[in-house]
Amino acid sequence: MDADTDICTMITNHEIDFRILGEEMQCVELELDPQETAIGESGSFMMMDQEIQMETIFGDGSQQQSGGIFSKLMSAGKRLLTGESLFMTAFTNMGSGKKTVTFAAPYPGKIIPLDLYRLNGKVICQKDAFLCAAKGVAVGIEFQRKLGTGLFGGEGFIMQKLEGDGMAFVHAGGHVIERELKPGELIKIDTGCIVAFTQTVDYDIQFVGGIKNTIFGGEGLFFATLTGPGKVWIQSLPVSRLASRIISYGGVGGRRREEGSILGGLGNILDGDGM
Q1: 41: domain CATH number?
Q2: Is the entire prediction scored with pTM above 0.85?
Q3: Which is the most buried residue in 150, 154, 259, 270, by most CB within 10 A?
């Protein structure tokens, strides 16, 4: 499926066309017909046409929030458990023709379009993956019911779930690999490399095992295991890994770490970066 040209048909959610632009630092351009609305994660907005109206809303503005102010507060409050903002932003085309609004990825990686109608109405993803969606897509929380998965699975007890029959867009770091797992097929993944998976996939954790692996392996104590059937999306560069590398390179007090240099601090002096 070509994300740049595919026209996505909705059932109950608003219908939007889209283009994904860029390579390492991507953005997604949503084309809205008159009175169509898209929702975006706080801080993801990039640009929009003049006739598009922006409105801050509680939660995601989906059908699930139609039960009054208490229901809206509960739905929006759940987002705090996933580390997201209490509010989201709705962008509605108030003009007479098609208009566009664009959302940008927060760090280097790929934007993944998810057609929830073709994915049986639900996808589970990491807590900070959601970027934007057609109005009507519900952005909620998914509790990991297994104690071991919740304690050691990297994502904790709580993940995001995207429900509905419209288009949703999530962001992942680095390169993204999409795998279709057959019934009973199992893959082991670094816990931070999971982006999303469909609801039919069984998510669990497995101890790495072995004293040398545990103490000296440097890969953590646990694998994430995903068992089919279903579809999974895997990222090559989790944002936590990117952040830790940047911090370790800077070192204490902003000084850089000498990566393999036998000169140590002397190398800084020779390079002109004095003590």
Answers
A1: 3.60.160.10
A2: no
A3: 154
